[in-house]
Amino acid sequence: MSWPLNSGEIISGLGAVIAFCAMIVTLWFARGNLKLQIAATELKYFEDFQRWADQLADALTEAEHLCDLDPKQVVGESFLDRRHRLRITISSMIDRGRWFLPNIVVDDHGADKELGYRGYRHELLDGPVEAYNCLQRLDCQNQENNKSIRNDLTKAKRKFVGQVQKILDPTSRRIFFDRIRDKAALVDQRAAR
Questions:
Q1: What are the pLDDT digits (tens) for 91-140?
Q2: What is this structure's pTM?
Q3: DSSP letters along 124-138, please?
Q4: How do residues 22-47 score in pLDDT, each as one tens digit?
């Protein structure tokens, strides 16, 4: 290369610099897009998880309040049928919960069981399993016998709600959305000037 550079060499050099800058900008935007894709995937997971938890909380609440009914005076769906329907719902929701929260120590415990049931279930599912078992004990003839079961169902539901709250972490989510809201308000204020 000789000095001074001719116009072709200068143009080639500028082209290389521009290509390099374009590569840096592309990488920067790709990194940002990857972060957005990861955040969107995480948001979808937690939306699905919350929808599942909402449905299970509804079933647990219905089971809890079933104890308040006098089995002899129930109109429409019988007390026994309601209990059976709730047990089916809660059982299904427990199984679906295993898709979000797989069992742990699957190689050491229950190796003879089906894949989804090997190991120890996640502690979040303990409350719903307890509620499922409580429903079996409900007396379909005498309301008085169901008062202590209602207390057990309340404890099981609260255990579940507490574990869901740990995972969904509503306080951190609120702080995150407060930051987004504050940034949006700042952009609006700047645009209004």
A1: 999 999 999 998 888 788 888 888 888 888 999 999 999 999 999 999 99
A2: 0.73
A3: GGHHHHHHHHHHHH-
A4: 888 887 777 767 777 888 888 898 99
Number of domains in the chain: 1
Q: Give domain status of residue 133, yes or no.
A: yes
Burial 42-55 (b: 16+ CB within 10 A, else e): eeeebeebeebbee
Q: Residue 80: inside a domain, yes or no?
A: yes
User: Given its phi and psi angles, is residue 119 left (phi above 0), alpha (psi -120 to 50 degrees) or beta?
Assistant: left
Q: Can you give the C-alpha Rg of the chain in angstroms?
A: 29
Which three-class secondary structure state does DSSP give residue 120? Answer: strand
Is the bond into 170 cis (omega within 30 degrees of 0)? no
